[in-house]
């Protein structure tokens, strides 16, 4: 079981990351706050089953799932034509790059943001998204290639 103080400290430190990830998926402050609250509540309930070293990827995975649940619910409730066009919370200094990242499919955008914006290792990205490390590498490669095609320049993040 994770100690209450450790849980609190890790949760507070991880909040900005969870918020940015949530904004990149649902693009709504209110929805992101709901998703963070749900993720934190689930983490608190299951803290006895979580290894301390795995809390960060576990909590991030729960956050991604909560955001996807919100998206699914929103799609059921709102006609496509009425959906607003939002920008993601992560805005690189180059606005053209930011726009190119925002139009990437979530499947490519999320690993890209986790790796290069939130500085997750490939292993942590894989654990968070529940995919293999080769799949992470493949998605990062495809995301960079899509950005290069979109921007017509070579894209390097490292």
Question: What sequence of helices (H) and strands (E) makes up the elements?
Answer: HHHHHHH
Provide the low-confidence segments as ranges.
Answer: 83-89
From the spread of the alpha carbons, the general shape counts as: globular
CATH architecture term of the largest domain: Orthogonal Bundle
Number of domains: 2
CATH class identity of the largest domain: Mainly Alpha
**Topology-level CATH name of the largest domain:** Rna Polymerase Sigma Factor, Chain: A
How many helices? 7
Number of E-type strands: 0
- Cα-based radius of gyration, to the nearest Å: 16 Å
Quick structural summary:
This protein has 158 residues and is mainly α. It has helices spanning 4-26, 29-45, 55-77, 95-102, 106-116, 122-129, 133-151.
Task: Describe it.
- With 158 residues, the protein is mainly alpha-helical.
- The chain has 2 domains: 1-88, Rna Polymerase Sigma Factor, Chain: A (Orthogonal Bundle); 90-158, Winged helix-like DNA-binding domain superfamily/Winged helix DNA-binding domain (Arc Repressor Mutant, subunit A, Orthogonal Bundle).
- 69% of the residues lie in helices and 0% in strands.
- It has helices at residues 4-26, 29-45, 55-77, 95-102, 106-116, 122-129, 133-151.
- Helix 1 (4-26) runs antiparallel to helix 2 and helix 6 (122-129) crosses helix 7.
- It is globular and about 50 Å long.
Task: Based on the model shown, name its key terms.
158 residues, mainly alpha, Rna Polymerase Sigma Factor, Chain: A, Arc Repressor Mutant, subunit A, 2 domains, 7 helices
